[in-house]
Automatic annotation (TrEMBL), chains A, B, C, D:
Signal peptide: none
Family matches, as Pfam families: GATase_4
GO biological process, one term: glutathione catabolic process
Residue ranges crossing the lipid bilayer per the database entry: none
UniProt cross-references to InterPro entries, sorted A to Z: EgtC-like, Gamma-glu_amide_hydrolase, GATase_2_dom, Ntn_hydrolases_N
Keyword Heme in record: no
Name recorded for this polypeptide: Glutamine amidotransferase type-2 domain-containing protein
Coiled coil: none
Keyword Cytoplasm: no
GO MF, any single term: glutathione hydrolase activity
GO cellular component: cytoplasm; glutathione hydrolase complex
């Protein structure tokens, strides 16, 4: 039920171009169902978070991201609307949340941060309550004590930090001017998934009605590299949807309508999102289920995650039933399939958009 | 885009039976679109208010209602969930709000109260900003100063109070043990509508693109009588939808599913709502456009509002286009037209319902 | 820095008489320093909670308390102001919080509840982060999973529930019409303290700068009996302050000024509070450090907690330095020592009190 | 009861140096009474706002300020703590509010903005409710409709905008690259004060108990010039306190302790504040009652406001009783007069400062 968005640009972008102005931003999507399949309700009104790295290298600003989060619906948040118009960044994570677990609280808002690291999750760990104690006893004190809220996602981030630590890296101190390096982050996220799989198996042994898979779309960055997984602990089901788009510029071609401009095959702008943010089908590439996406120096890499849930035969289809039942599937629909395509969602129902001045 | 609900019972009802437990409560409707027409989005996540009179006549409790309101989505409000399980009342107003005007603020939450009076509005005053100054100069100081927020609805309530005053009644002092009497309240609400119509006409004179009608579904009570209008300043359009239901008891026949029990034609329970709260078509009577509903001593009366917008020929149909464009039409749909009818909306999408203990 | 208040009456009291109307309610205290020692700042603006049992035995209302809590300052909470004027109860817990640990979140607001049980804490567990993992591994799953927030107090409540369980009682099912019985609750709270002491000792072994004691003023009720401790893990320091008062009625003798009326030695009203709520010194009895107070059938009992921190020689004084450094000492001051005694705190500084109607 | 702060620098400053890190920032002052006179309570927990202009001239960022405001206490606001560590500006307005009028709502938070203009108020308009209708009928529609909330301060800003308009300037369009010019803004603010004085007089005529003066400390900027008044409608009372400080740098000489560095008489940094932010008495100049301060190109100018309330004889003292009764006097106290000077207010009472990462 959650949605997320990642922006990585050669140049900084005004946050409003990602969050508040596009008709299909994850915020406006959060009350517009058109890009979701029909029988899903579009509510993601339970909280919002955006994290961004400051564009210039200013030692006074530190190397960690700035996070703004709220427990009120994003579409009505005046502070967000104003900050988005006045803030630029070349590395942005944004997350709209529907509370599947954990009460409404700022401590439960994504993205989560730890020094230079930032993390978010789209999906859910199946039967998390059964493995929570294992998690608690597995981790080093500092990551166990890091957890402030009540979500599986925050625990997953703590586990990721502990995994980095177990791989010999201190997550509070990036190794160099380019951060931890994409290999290290990828390894730690794969280790995180491995632990969750193992404990999940141990906890469900013999429990026949415990066949629900975990949906583990994780995104993590150190401000330099970005790693995003599209993963499910199942051989037959699809993971929560994940797409990316690259181009030379993300432009507003008419009010509220954005598209990816692609000149010279440049990847100056990379967007990764739980669902397409534009109507151009060709703008978006679907990340295959159970693979891992890497952004390194404005280049996108895709690797399969080849474990027991990997399907070697590409002709064997996966069902989207489970992910759909969790509101986590977003097929690319044709714009003409919908009426009023050119009317932004608020206007279409006679609501006034937040006006920032006057 | 707003929804409201009125309960008047011979006996007090647990608020949870109205607000949080029914699958089709106005709160759960606020993220379930099934009872709305298809192309409307179901979001009413911008605030919530419930007002209720305490059941016993205890002088220490006073004669005014208690109001609880919130600017966070109702479906996620722990305080509301807990209060609803522990509070009973025989006279309840509830309102779910989508901000068409006025920022998100507790001062903009319905119902509004003034001593023993309580008021809410579903709809909007067309071109309100043009008549705001007229309103300000028309009213007595005490009602002008009553307004704290920025909504047309709160101004309409202040105008209603001023209208009561102009009819010779002090709205801060109910006349007797039975309140102001339903005639007086009805007259004041009709006078309120009259002023709005007049000023609307004056403000739009010559303005050809100012043909948008006002949607004036008002509900007001003094704790004894209830007056509800279904009204639009148009001869050809339908007003925002309004329905009522009467019976001997509002019962939960299976978890989350309620119906009106009707034995012996008793009207021990009266519900008035912007949309039907149960799937039984026969449970609900549609209030005709441009009429006024009165509840007096557990009896429902309907009167037409016979002015220039009244349509004497009942065979002349009104269009529901305008009200629908504002998200204010709620046809009674067949339950079988929808899948998963028996699954409450949160469970259907894998969300956990707020659990109050543990 | 927190404050709490307990009311147990033969008859229900309007919550406003406890919370919002008295000049010295814990809310108004929360920005009036007069009853605190001078160099303490009076801020308890970080959240508020009130829990109350509904007065009548109505099966539909259940046997658990209703809790209303907020993360905004209590003195500005319109919902609280309105509910307090419309709600009566004969068993009330109220808590004003300053965040010594745990971020501002409704999940961190006292009182905490579990079925019929309600709990709050004034003080703090020293070096809680060192024993958190022990707590996590000690408890049964259901109490481990009960914890939603990040405070030592919520963990202490979970430990109390687990202690009840270890004593052979299911905390989700009260034994009879009179609840668990005061002996059982007292034993469970003493066991809770014993665990915290033991783990604290284990965690601090050899750590010379870890001499800070824990302040464990706990209050717990099942709706029938009330148990309150005044306890510190030290032989030389005083615990956080605790007082009680009994009488026939808690009356407002002039606006905003309350006193305990005492006729015929009746104990129709029992108040327990972290600080005196009236200026009458003789109204209040100080609970000795390291003792446990029981309310059973409108009778107050005091027992010493005789462990290694008990001081058998009453002539040996304890220092109030540590508790004072935590803002947890509240000597009974003379009203004449202060100017403007008769002016309520808001009025004294020209602030308007929340007006509920108009 | 409110406090405000203005920063104007040749270079941008990290907001944390103004807002969250200094022991004597207006936020930390808001729960530390030392710099106030003794019998005042230090609460300003009712809301907070900060407005800043983005440092670079980037057309995409527009010429208006960014405003972040909150209705929860500033000292507990995680978003503020994080933004302050990641945001720099050379023109900052900050305001801490205690609600003397107007409910707690984001619409009532200062600073208020209108296109490139930003405004805040420390004080209150006496008997504002009596002149509200005059204000409403005096202003042009667009400024009348600008008002969203319920405070005298927001109305005062609308009146200022209308006054600019009456002086022939469109407040939505700055005249040139240097804004409106300090003369124009000063004239408009003086006209605003004139109107308030006149209406106040008209409204109080013959009302003998209506002798309470208005406290009109206004601050306004267009991003270039800053105008601040210290004004009271009285010949015998002092206005709310106002101070300024200039220097070459505002530096942290030890953790939490700041001072103004002054080399070469440069005015690279200008601070204006309702109370001194450092303990160095010589850092701060008191603005005389009934005068107007101008910042133009890093230069501070002071002019008297010579009207019927001007006291030509400087030897005639004003009383500070009225302003003190409103909590609006802040004498410069000696640091040695207080214990624990070097301990920041949160630490002194054992509270944890908000930790942003980990």
């Amino acid at each position: 039920m959650c949605r997320f968005l990642i922006f990585k640009g050669r140049d900084p972008i005004l946050l409003a171009h990602l969050l508040t102005r596009p008709e299909h931003s994850i915020i406006n999507q959060s009350y517009d169902s058109r890009l979701r399949i029909d029988n899903r309700r579009p509510i993601n009104g339970d909280g919002f978070g955006v994290g961004y790295y400051t564009p210039e290298a200013d030692p006074e600003l530190g190397d960690g991201p700035c996070v703004f989060c709220a427990t009120t619906p994003a579409w009505n948040n005046l502070n967000l609307a104003r900050l988005a118009e006045k803030t630029k960044s070349s590395m942005v994570f944004a997350h709209v949340r529907a509370s599947t677990a954990g009460v409404l609280s700022e401590t439960n808002c994504h993205p989560f941060t730890f020094h230079s690291l930032m993390f978010m999750h789209n999906g859910q760990i199946a039967n998390f309550h059964r493995m929570k104690r294992k998690l608690a006893s597995h981790m080093k004190d500092e990551y166990f004590l890091y957890v402030q809220g009540g979500t599986d996602s925050e625990w997953a981030f703590a586990l990721f930090l502990d995994s980095l630590d177990k791989l010999g890296v201190d997550p509070s101190k990036p190794a160099g001017v380019n951060g931890f390096g994409h290999e290290m982050i990828r390894n730690a996220i794969l280790l995180t998934i491995q632990y969750i799989k193992d404990w999940s198996k141990q906890c469900s042994e013999g429990d026949t009605d415990n066949e629900e898979p975990s949906l583990l779309n994780f995104a993590v960055t150190d401000g330099h590299s970005v790693i995003v997984t599209r993963y499910i602990t199942s051989r037959t089901e699809e993971a929560a949807s994940l797409h990316f788009s690259t181009g030379s510029k993300f432009i507003e071609y008419e009010p509220g309508q954005y598209k990816m401009e692609r000149r010279d095959r440049r990847q100056d702008v990379i967007l990764v999102a739980s669902e397409p943010l534009t109507f151009e089908r060709s703008d978006w590439v679907t990340v295959p289920t159970n693979s891992i996406l890497t952004i390194n120096n404005q280049t996108v890499l895709l690797h399969p995650i080849m474990d027991e849930f990997y399907q070697t035969d590409p002709s064997v289809p996966r069902s989207s039933n489970f992910a759909a039942s969790r509101g986590l599937v977003s097929p690319i629909v044709e714009p003409q399939a919908s009426t009023n395509v050119n009317l932004p969602p608020l206007e279409r129902e006679g609501r006034r958009r937040l006006s920032i001045t006057v």
